[in-house]
Amino acid sequence: MPPLLEVQNLQTHFGTIDGVVRAVEGVSFHINAGETLGVVGESGCGKSVTAMSILRLIQEPPGKIAGKILFQGRDLLELSEPEMQAIRGKDISMIFQEPMTSLNPVLTVGFQIGETVVLHEGVSAREAEQRAIEMLTLVGIPAPERRVREYPHQLSGGMRQRVMIAMALACSPQLLVADEPTTALDVTIQAQILELMRELKTRVGAAIMLITHDLGVVAEMAQRVIVMYAGRKVEEGTVEEIFLNPLHPYTRGLLGSMPKLGSSLTETGRSKLTEIQGQVPSLRKPIIGCPFASRCPQVTDVCRRIAPAIEEKAPNHTVACHYVERALAAA
Amino acid sequence: MSTTQTRQLEVKGQTPLLEVKGLKKHFPIHGGILGLKTGDVYAVDGVSFSINRGETLSLVGESGCGKSTVGKAVLRLYPITDGEVLLDGRRIDNLSAGELRPLRKRIQVVFQDPFSSLNPRQKLFDIIAEPIINFGLASGSALDDRVGDLLDKVRLPRDAMYRYPHEFSGGQRQRIAIARALAPGSDLIICDEAVSALDVSVKAQIVNLLSDLQDELGLTLLFISHDLAIVEHLTHRVAVMYLGKIVEVADRRTLFSTPHHPYTRALLSAVPVPDPTVKRNRIILHGDVPSPINPPSGCRFHTRCPFVFDRCKVDEPQLRDVGLGRISACHLDVVPDDVPTANRAIAVPA
Hints:
Radius of gyration of chain B: 22 Å
Number of helices of chain A: 13
Strand content of chain A: 15-25%
Order of helices and strands of chain B: HEEEHEEHEHHHEHEHEEHHHEE
Strand content of chain B: 15-25%
Shape of chain B: globular
Helix content of chain B: 25-40%
Largest sheet of chain B: 8 strands, mixed
Strand order of the largest sheet of chain A: 6-7-8-3-9-10-12-11
Structural class of chain A: alpha/beta
Number of strands of chain A: 12
Radius of gyration of chain A: 21 Å
Structural class of chain B: alpha/beta
Order of helices and strands of chain A: EEEHEEHEHHHHEHEHEEHHHHEEH
Oligomer: heterodimer
Number of strands of chain B: 12
Distance between the termini of chain B: 42 Å
Strand order of the largest sheet of chain B: 6-7-8-3-9-10-12-11
Helix content of chain A: 25-40%
């Protein structure tokens, strides 16, 4: 079976006064129907731009998207704007990070949820409100008949994120792109939302592209993971492979620099976190060689000259590094 | 509460550097055409703790629990409603601005957002030198040396002092903010979500820097954070806050291995673990944090607590010794390990 979504050599560049910013530089991956793909990386690694490119939410110009984005065999980059609109919110929908700013403050939540249904399924306003109530019930909002007439400011952060999820799922999409869906929330509310997403996934059966910088969230939610750095994919594998057997020095650094709960039980004193030295390279200049070379502890001359190709180094596990074997031996 | 607190101090046998007793901070709410006072936000409602010299105490809790307000009240960024703040055993909350001024150099702060807490029109030298000049601690070439030393301490190159904040990344700016906090030779640094806005790899750098500086200079830290994994990594003791009150205080290992208060347990169990092989028995709390304008009666956590019983709704539990050096504000002596099935929180109604 072909994958639900296949992204081939995606390049998203932005023209600015200071030159071209290469936000995404040749990223390829796929998502199968019904699976959760985790996309991790730090700010500016291009993970959100990748998501926005899939939905074609990048303004062109200054943005420029190249490559192929095949959704059910159709290249989304070749569709007209009306064709794209028929897909957004129906087949592919998105949950944004900031539930405060991504809901319209002057419209009721019921209207905002129903709007998608009216648009894609041509139902009446009354039916749309009924659907909105059903969706609010589905996402666990108490008293949905009352809440449906309320405005976003009357809801708490957690409830607004539930509304966002209700909106995204109203037309039973096949792919849900969730861009940092729990980053703005407190941990106990995050636990509620993740639980909800897991449950809805089994019920609705949508595939999820989960973008986050929180490795803990990925470990709990995803089946497969891609790690991005400086606009490139540096590693991809099953969640077990990435977390238990990370091969790229960046992934190792990222996992090492993250403090883990329970550290006080295994260590006697306070221990040091692994640091990744230096900073992310600027995306304004073309990067020659490996993008991680300037921060990599195992860097050689080859790394500075030649960009490593992404290759399969273990079953279901690809990585872009010249020295996987050496990195493993050093660890 | 105060008896437990006193007992703890007697055991330690030294005057704590900072002591906070029954701190309250209520913000009035004004409404209507006349702008009359219509109520209060009970942001901090009776908080007591102490920090010993060279120690890190972390205040943890979710947004709106009052942890930042405690930090700002200690700094006297606004007057407190009630309670006492003592520095080296001396009350500082009732001092006049003039009397307080010389003490200000001993307590400094690092805020969350290094993009808004540094003046974009000042060079690094001026940012870091300002507190030194204000307190008349150095001038001329001594001042240059002192700023240079501070940059060394936070591991920034000395020539950075002639540059502006916008030339630096988030992590570097946070180093600048730390250098400024160290500048007047402070004993106590309040870190208000100081690493929350940073990326994972940069966060690790700043956390390591803070622990190194503490060892090197004998700093005392009040570390305010919602990130429990970071807290566990660098703290000595932890105080957990919920809706303006401290619900549990314990040393690091005790709190993270055997948390007592049901809220602490829920908070810890909610943190996602970066290990796909770990399947956790998660306590999911229902609902949201109630409003601090009209906090629940009795135990403030009773509306979300999986172990709630009748007494919790009327009788407010006080912080008391529950063994292993912990103090916890829960009526239960032994909190069961698992949530009773009947009360198990369900995220989504069927």
